[in-house]
Write a structure and sequence with these properties.
- The complex is a heterodimer of chains A (426) and B (292).
- By secondary structure, chain A is of the alpha/beta class.
- Chain A has two domains: 203 residues, Periplasmic binding protein-like II (D-Maltodextrin-Binding Protein, domain 2, 3-Layer(aba) Sandwich), CATH 3.40.190.10; 192 residues, Periplasmic binding protein-like II (D-Maltodextrin-Binding Protein, domain 2), CATH 3.40.190.10.
- Chain A contains 18 helices and twelve strands.
- In chain A, strand 4 and strand 5 form a beta hairpin.
- In chain A, helix 10 packs across helix 17.
- In chain A, 51% of the residues are buried.
- Chain B is mostly helical.
- Chain B has one domain: Orthogonal Bundle (MetI-like fold).
- Chain B is built from 13 helices and no strands.
- Chain B starts with a helix and ends with a helix.
- Classes of the chains: A alpha/beta (426), B mainly alpha (292).
- Chains A and B meet through helix 3, helix 11 and helix 17 of A and helix 12 of B.
């Protein structure tokens, strides 16, 4: 009897050890891609015999969680979603990303049909440091204009192609007595910077030039004022507290006629279970500005392996599966996501299921696009807060205040941050 | 070795040992560790290991206008929230101190805000306060009043957040005061009534002085908590609009988790810790001075 018990115990220990080796801890963001991935995980577990523990967080919490785990060197994270433009430099600098190049070059580790060359070159470049690859790009995003087809038709308007037309349409479609507002876009400090960026570029401004902050030029100030003016005058009350979630909620509730934000939200705007205007949503390319037409087009999310992971081989198996042609194709078909691989875009079957309007905005945006939607620097979080404060001030005053002093102060702050990281003038 | 004799001989050390270890590991260590970090220049954005720099992190933090803005807002928020909670809580306790039908149900319901999850409270109130689709403005319009921007208004965001705090924590003050009232001796009341004192005189000269120790304890507990408020603010405004509701705790959170300036975040937190500690000491002295 005793022998049997001991034997059973040994078997149990052996099984649990195998189990431990075949487990990956995956941290995801609350993003449509993650929703697709989560439905496919059981399939992966069955095929590969690997247990996947998934956790999902809001994007800022995800960053904080990862940084805390990595900085304390107590991390058990194996694979994680990461924002190359937001935290890529910081992660690379601290050595928290596993270098993926040796794996990608190893034909034994990388599945034959993975085809790394299939990823869009610009997207790959967002996570390349010193000629090595540190993350696999997932999805791209660009700024678009969501609009209400019914309100535009009733007012005899066409979707605006310039910012002047946008302002006129916003004015015409605002009626506070009916709680109907012309436009909404992000106003919350920090979060607002990325969606403001396309406006900034349209007025001929930029965040950095030659490693120095330049968003206090007359062109940039014009952009701040324009953004503040339209959101204060034709936006819903309380824009300065709004990120994408609040903008989306108001749009879904039918309270706003236009909404400028990232291209990934079309599925949610048209989801009949969440939106009362699901069948009245149009999407158009971001309008041209007085000086330029170059909205952002970025690799918003990528996936990486933690340097501190103790099961990198297993982690790499998961990573190559999660970024495989099949999975990314499914993300594109199911959620209308624009993935960083080229092959789904060449697949007529996929394109037939993809929204024509959204595809048209991509085609219109890609040739002119700016490859970043925030200043590219290590301390980007703090820089976003500094710039975001100027945007908040612009909205509070409706674009009428003289923002020179505030913009200058923010420029000084960002330059200090660049200097502290040794990036000033580079 | 672990026979009965050993246990007997060392019982006075062994029995408190778990409690001592627990206190050391979970209370003393984090405080000392934070103190140590505050003397370093630890900054994740630099990619360099932390270096001991004495008071340099403190100097950097104290030179930031944002820090002092957060300091003033912390005091302002605590002041208005705790003042309103104290007045309302004591009045509520006096009402509940009589017998009436449904008293037990009301007392049970008072506990609800206290046990609710702070983040859920934050999310619910964010929806209430939404200027266009929230019920706060809907209710105002019902009474013919003009809608407010609530937490989206930089000039009103702190009072609006204090309202959430008041909603959640007034019951605590009421319950503690009620416990104090229940323990009061009836004799002074009888003599006062014999001497012809009116209701207000009885309250002002008898009830209030007698229940003051309980109220003061409640105020102390609430103030310590309010100075450190994080959850409600973070889950509603994250310190916004702009920095209009950024308190010391939120500022320190931003410093560490958004800007990765860990040394400076620790310095700011040590300051907050000292603030809370000196406030508690002050109240303790006040109690002694008043002979409560």
């Amino acid at each position: 009897m005793k022998k049997i018990l001991v034997a059973a115990l040994l078997v149990a220990v052996a099984v649990s050890m195998v189990g431990a080796q075949g487990t990956v801890r995956v941290l995801l963001a609350n993003h449509p891609y993650a929703e697709v991935l989560k439905t496919l995980v059981p399939e992966f577990e069955k095929t590969y015999g690997i247990k996947v523990n998934v956790e999902s967080y809001d994007e800022n919490q995800l960053s904080s969680k990862l940084m805390t785990e990595f900085a304390t060197r107590m991390s058990t994270v194996d694979v994680f979603m990461t924002r190359p433009l937001q935290e890529g430099k910081l992660m690379y600098l601290n050595g928290w990303y596993e270098n993926l190049s040796p794996y990608l070059k190893d034909s034994k580790k990388t599945p034959k049909d993975f085809d790394f060359a299939d990823f869009a070159q610009s997207a790959v470049g967002a996570s390349t440091y010193a000629k090595n690859q540190y993350a696999i790009p997932l999805v791209t995003e660009w700024e678009v204009l969501y609009y209400r087809t019914d309100l535009f038709a009733a007012a005899g308007l066409k979707p605006p192609t310039t910012l002047a037309e946008l302002e006129a349409a916003a004015k015409k479609l605002t009626d506070p007595s009916k709680e109907q507002y012309g436009i909404v876009s992000r106003g919350q400090r920090g979060a607002n910077v990325t969606q403001f960026s396309s406006y900034l570029y349209a007025f001929g401004g930029d965040f950095l030039k030659d490693g120095k902050a330049v968003f206090n030029t007359p062109a940039a100030l014009e952009a701040f004022k324009y953004y503040g003016r339209i959101l204060k005058n034709y936006g819903p009350p309380g824009v300065t507290g709004m990120s994408w979630a609040q903008g989306l909620a108001l749009f879904q509730a039918g309270k706003v006629a236009m909404w400028t934000d990232a291209s990934v939200f079309l599925g949610q705007a048209r989801d009949p279970s969440k939106s009362v205007v699901a069948d009245k949503v149009g999407v158009a390319a971001f309008p041209a500005g007085p000086k330029a037409n170059k909205p952002y087009f970025v690799t918003s999310w990528a996936m990486a392996i933690a340097k501190q992971s103790r099961n990198k081989e297993t982690a790499y198996k998961f990573l190559t599966w999660a970024t495989s042609k099949e999975v990314l194709k499914k993300a594109m078909v199911d959620k209308g996501l624009t993935v960083a691989r080229n092959s789904p875009w060449a697949d007529p079957a996929v394109l037939a299921l993809f929204d024509k309007q959204l595809a048209a905005t991509a085609t219109a945006t890609i040739p002119l696009a700016t490859g970043y939607d925030r200043p590219l620097m290590t301390a980007v979080g703090e820089a976003r807060d500094a710039i975001g404060e100027v945007i908040v001030a612009a909205i509070e005053s409706g674009g009428t205040a003289d923002l020179t002093a505030q913009a200058n102060a923010a420029v000084k702050k960002v330059n200090e941050l660049l200097d502290a990281a040794g990036e000033l003038g580079k | 070795m672990l026979d009965g004799k050993f246990l007997d001989r060392h019982a006075k050390v062994l029995f408190p040992l778990p409690a001592v270890l627990f206190t050391l590991a979970l209370m003393v260590f984090p405080v000392l560790y934070t103190l140590w970090v505050s003397f370093t220049n630890w900054n994740l954005a630099s990619g360099l290991p932390p270096r001991f720099v004495w008071f340099k992190s403190y100097a950097t933090v104290f030179a930031e206008p944002r820090f002092w803005g957060a300091f003033v807002r912390t005091l302002y928020f605590t002041g208005i929230a705790v003042a309103a909670e104290t007045v309302l809580g004591v009045v509520w306790a006096l009402v509940l101190n009589r017998e009436f039908v449904g008293k037990r149900t009301i007392k049970a319901m008072m506990l609800l805000p206290l046990v609710a999850t702070p983040v859920a409270i934050g999310i619910a109130w964010t929806l209430f306060y939404e200027p266009t689709i929230g019920i706060a403005n809907w209710a105002l319009k019902l009474f013919g009043l003009q809608g407010s921007r609530w937490i989206a208004d930089p000039d009103f965001v702190l009072p609006a957040l204090a309202i959430i705090d008041v909603w959640q924590w007034t019951p605590l003050i009421a319950l503690i005061t009620l416990a104090g009232l229940a323990g009061l001796s009836q004799e002074p009341y009888e003599s006062a009534r014999v001497d012809g004192a009116n209701g207000w005189q009885i309250f002002w000269h008898i009830t209030l002085p007698m229940v003051a120790p309980a109220v003061l304890t409640a105020v102390l507990l609430r103030s310590i908590d309010a100075l450190k408020t994080f959850d409600i603010i973070y889950s509603t405004t994250q310190g916004g609009p702009g920095f209009a509701s950024e308190t010391l705790n939120i500022y320190s959170y931003n410093l560490s988790f958004n800007y990765f300036r860990l040394g400076q975040a620790a310095a700011s937190l040590v300051f907050l810790f000292a603030l809370v500690l000196s406030f508690s000491a002050l109240v303790a002295r006040l109690r002694r001075r008043l002979g409560l």
